[in-house]
Amino acid sequence: GENVEQHPSTLSVQEGDSAVIKCTYSDSASNYFPWYKQELGKRPQLIIDIRSNVGEKKDQRIAVTLNKTAKHFSLHITETQPEDSAVYFCAASKADTGTASKLTFGTGTRLQVTL
Amino acid sequence: EPEVTQTPSHQVTQMGQEVILRCVPISNHLYFYWYRQILGQKVEFLVSFYNNEISEKSEIFDDQFSVERPDGSNFTLKIRSTKLEDSAMYFCASRGGETLLYEQYFGPGTRLTVT
Hints:
By secondary structure, chain A is mainly beta. Chain A contains no helices and 11 strands. Chain B is mostly beta strands.
């Protein structure tokens, strides 16, 4: 089955700096890669996702890149702010209409943005 | 904006007791999921449900677990005889049925504590 590795496990950056979190996946059939942000005691919230037919996607300060050949994808957060502090999870799925495709999550990255 | 809801927010039970965790998915969604997250660990897939039947289940989802959609709105997870290792946060998620909509939306979770 699918295996998703995520690095680093913790990341501390100063406010205004950029943060990069990297994930690799094992199943070349995976085609949907969401990123979730989870604040302490809260639900995972989808912040951005990318599909296998796209190499990069950007939404304001957040961007995700995908390298299908190498089977890795990354989350980039620019101009970090204290409210970006949370645990970030990557996930992979063989998504398709008509199938209840599961998400396989990475192990999470605890991002701390310091003043 | 519609959200997935879950009840109760916290359930404490004794080992060997049955528990039922309840979820109300987003109303027009067709795919339903249960995930769990042991404290400090990643989110793990338990089971997916579509068209009134289980689509896929993980190794965690053994004979002690069952799911049901008893009416048009609720989606439940039952654990027949709880074990200490069942202590975790349980998240329900749902996904729409429209073509190419892969996003899964998570509920706030039920924290299950087995003593």
